[in-house]
Amino acid sequence: MSLESLLFKLEDNEWPLAKTITHCHRFNGNTAQYGTLRHQLAPQVKHYLLEKHIRLYSHQCDAINAVAEGRNIIITTPTASGKTLCFNVPVFDALARDPEATALYIYPTKALASDQLKTVVQMEKDSGILVHPHRVDGDIPRGAKETIAMKSRLILTNPDTLHRMLERRGLWERFFSKLRFIVIDEAHTYRGIFGTNVAYLMRRFKRICKYYQSQPAFILSSATISNAVELGETLIDGPLTLIDKDGSPHGEKYFILMNYDLKMGTTRQTVELLTECVAQRCQTICFAGSRKLVGLISKKTVNLLSKGKHPELADKVEEYRAGYSPEDRGRKERLLKGGDLLGVVSTNALELGIDVGSLDCAILSGYPGSMMSTWQQAGRAGRKSKKSLIFLIAYNNPLEMYYVQRPMEFFNKPMEKAVIDLQNTEVRRNHLYCAAYEKPINPLEDSEFLGNDLEAFIVNHCLTPLFQNVDGIWYYRAKIHESVNIRGIFEETFYAEAPNQFKETLTKSQAFREAHKGAIFFHNNDKYLVTDLNLTTRMASLQKVDVLYYTIAHVTITLDILSEESINFGEFKLKFGSLEVSTLYDAFSVVRDSGQCDGRYPLDLPPHTFDTKGIWITIARSVLNEFEKNGGKRIEKALKGIEIITQLTISHFILSDPRDIGVYSGDHPKNPGDFIIAIYDDYKGGIGISYKLKDSLPGLVRLNRDFLERCPCKDGCPACLYHSKRVEADSVSKRDTIILLSVLEKMMVDTP
User: Fold this and answer.
1) Which residues, including other chains, have CB under 8 Å from residue 356's CB and lie 6 or more apart?
2) Partner of 746 at 20 to 30 A CA spacing, among 136, 253, 706, 715?
3) pLDDT at position 489, please?
C-alpha cells in the first residue's frame, strides 16, 4: 500500500469521499538551484559542509553572503527549503572565528526551540565548534540558568523568557556583551498584540545590548506573507534585506479541494479520510481549528480503525496541541519523525517548523483562516523530491464553500499582510515600566529605542508612585516583569486537572469557554467531565467519562462607545475610535456526537470587560427607511445575519488570528432607536487591526451579499448563515440580511 494506492482510491467514484472532490491542483516539482559563496567560511564550517555532503542552494548562499556583508536579512522561502542553514552557517562561522562571541535564537514556542536545539547540538558535534548550546525557558531550573549564563555561547529561547532575562540582565552580562547575532525564527507569528509586545521587547533588548557595548546583527526567518520586510523592520526597528528566491528542490504536489458532504459533515469526512490515509500506510498530519476538534477527530479515527479492518493501526494515531507536558510533546514528535506514528491530529501547533520528518499527506480540516497558514500547513507534507498529497475539506460556511467552488480564485489568492501597530498605549506603558526597571530611562539617550516622544508619553500615560523622576532620570521601583504578558494583555493562567493523570494550562478565556462546570474536556483521545471550576484557585477539576456528547459554550456581548472619529463612505459616516466591550459566557449546549443538540444550560460566570479599538457604522432611520422600502421586515435578524457572515469573511481581507477580531450588532449604545454594526480588536487596548478594514468596507459588504445570494437555500442553511454555533433558531433571516446588505452597498457607492 502506498500514496499511489490512495490516489487510485480517490479516483473511485464509488467511494463517497471521492464524490466530494471539486478540484485537484497539480504543482510540478522542481530541481535544485545551487549558489556560490563570495566569502570564505571558517575551516571548521567548510569541513562540516563537505563531510555532510551539503551543497548550498542559491537562497542559502544569498543569505550567507548578505550576512557576511553586514546586512540584516529576512528569509521567506517555503517550508522545508533549508532556512535553518541560512542562519546556522553564518552563526557558527562567526563563533568559530571569535571564541568569545555569542548568539541568541528566538522561537515563538518552547516546543520549537527544543526541537531546533537537537539540530544545533548535532552541528556542534559534527563541526567541532564548541558553542555549548542550551535552551533557556520556564522549564529550566534557576540554578541551571546560572551555569548556562556563564558557559553557553548559543542560547535558544522564546520572547517570554527573553523578557524575564532582561529583568535579571546582570546574570546575562557576559552573554549580552559578546552578542553577535539575534536570530528570530517564524517571524510571521509576531503579529497582532503578540507582535506589538515583541516589537517593544526588541527595542528594550537593543537598548540593553548598547549598554553592554554589543551590536548584534539580525537574521529573521518567516513564512511567505505580502509584507514580510515591513513586518520584520517594525519588529527590529531597523532595515532588512529580503531573501525570497527558493533554490531547493520540491517534489510533485497534488492539492485536492473537497466539498462539504451534507450527510457526513466535515468532521466525519476528515475522520474517514484520515482513516483511509492511515490504512494505506501514508504518514499523515491532520490540522483542525480548535483543541476540541482535534480531540473529536483523533478519538473518532482511533475508534474507526479499532472497529474496522485495521485494528492494529489504532495506536498509530495521536493528537498534538498546546497544554501537554514537554515530555509528552517530545515523545509524540519523536514517534512521528521516526515513522512510528502514521497519523497525528494537531492544532496549528505543528504548523511551525518543528521537524517531524517526511510526511506523505496533509489534511486541512477546514480553511485555516489565511493563505499564509494554508501554505504553511500544506508544506508539512512532502520533502525534496518526494510526491505528496494535500487535502482541504471545506466546512459548510460561505467562505469555504466559495473557495472550493472557485478553485482558481483560491489558488491565485495573494498572501495577506501581517499587522503590527505600536500605538497601543497600555502595551507601550508596560514595556516602559520594564525598561526603567532594567536600566533607568534617560529620555535624551533612550528615545533612540523607546520613541522620539518618550518624555511626553511618560508624563501623559505612565505617572505612578512607582515610576519616579530623579534629576531627569526615570526609575521604576518594583518588579514588574511577571505581570506583563508578552503574548497579549495580561490574562490569568488557569489549570485543568485530572488527579494523578494530567494537568493542563489554560488562559482565562479558554477556561471559561472549554473548562466551565459541565463542559466536556478532551485530552489524548479521552473525554473528561468538568465537575468544578474554582475561580479563586483558577482550577478546573476533571473526571474521566465515557459519553457520546460534547459541549459548546455561548457568549453574550455588549458594547459601549468611549470616543470616536469619522470618515465619509458615500452616505455613511464610518466611525472609528475606542470601545468598551463586555463578554459573558452565560450558557452552554450539550451536543451529541451525531450533531443533535440535547439542550441548553445556564452558566454562572463573571463578565470580562475591556477597552479596545474598533470601527463601526450606524444603522440610522434613513437606512431603516431604505431597508423597509426594499421589502425588509426584521432589522434585528438582518443585523444578526451580517454579524455572523462578517466574522467569517474578515479573513479574506486581513491577516489576523481568529480571536483577534470581534463583530457586534445590536442597539446603538448612544442613540436610542438606531442600531450599530461594529468590528473591533478582541483584547484590551487593541492595536488597530480592525482599522485596517476601513478601506475594505465596501468590498466586505459586496462579498457578504454575493455569498448569500449564491447560496441556493431559501432562508439560511449551514452553508451560509447557520454555520456559527452562536446562531439561535429563528434569530436570523437570509432574505432580510441580503436586503440590508444591498442597501448598505448602494449607500456606499460614492466612496473616496
Assistant:
1) 285, 333, 336, 337, 344, 350, 380
2) 715
3) 60
